[in-house]
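From the pipeline queue, job 12 of 40. The input is one protein chain; the requested action is below.

Action: predict structure.
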Amino acid sequence: MRHLSEYRDASLLRGLVARLQGATHRPYRIMEVCGGQTNTIVRYGLDQCLAPHVTLLHGPGCPVCVTPASYLDAARQLAMRPEVVLCSFGDMLRVPGSEGTLLDCKSAGADVRTLYSPLDALKLARSLPDKQVVFFSIGFETTAPLTALAVLQAAEASQPNFSVLCAHVTIPPAIFVILQSAEVQIDALLAPGHVCTVTGTQEYERLSLEFGVPIVVTGFEPADILQGVWSAIRCLEDARAGVIMQYSRAVTPEGNLQAQRLIQRVLTVTDREWRGLGVIPSSGLNLSPQFAGYDACRRFALRLESGSEPGGYCARVLRGNLAPCDCPKFLKECTAEHPLGAPMVSSEGACAAYMQYSRSMHPFGDLGGA
């Protein structure tokens, strides 16, 4: 099988694939909602190995991908101010806004820096008292606690030159919108294990109950994903829903309570625009009123112009009803050098994964065999 031999225990994967191929003769559609899982699936050809009875659909699982152009435009405005040092994670520097990227700003002389954590940005602010240090903070519930901690420490120290452009989003509201949509039939979900290490599984239990779909909390190794698919199929064959814990080595049902308390203390839930998906109610995290003084939008009187993201092909890819290789713009107008939309922007995007592993040439081939 193409790609499986690259894994450190290829025989384990072949055994799991063989078991899954004989598990059902009914067609099921299972969506993973994590960009890391998408990359693993495409790299090792797991979706091809399981076809035709199991179709793996790729959801909106990359926080870099779903950060809308409105936030990129705001970050670019900040970066071009001479008193500002704009910091963010590395992938964000390449994401296009309406008129370019943060790397373009850097090339034009702006002080744009790649950092691994908002805590590093706070440290930088302490070392540059004559500059305004802004951290462009993105991500799901996994990175939100670090943003909350940095803001809390800045407030406790009365740090005057630190703020955040807060673009965090949360996964369950997006899953709700996708499950509610009539665009695509989803029989089961693979939930993002790294998110659940923070949040626990309570929200996923509610989603499973409301929509009657099994949800498997899954890791990121190929074996994790295949075991997650196996658990989902067992539930579907038995006509039962519920949350199943495949990633039990890292996730507990209650999650990380300390991280949750940090989020609840510093951040507040709000509606949020997602690139390619539009505004999703109660899917964002902003600074709470108590910490609004550290909100870069408020400090620099920025307005976020929402609604700048077209739908079309990108939204269909993010909702799981269009494979990247079936998009008429894939690897034509839309490439890694000139991405037209969300899934091609980040290395964890579905289109970027298909491009990296040359899936445009054989999207449905190599279904089995050694």
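Job complete. The radius of gyration is 21 Å.
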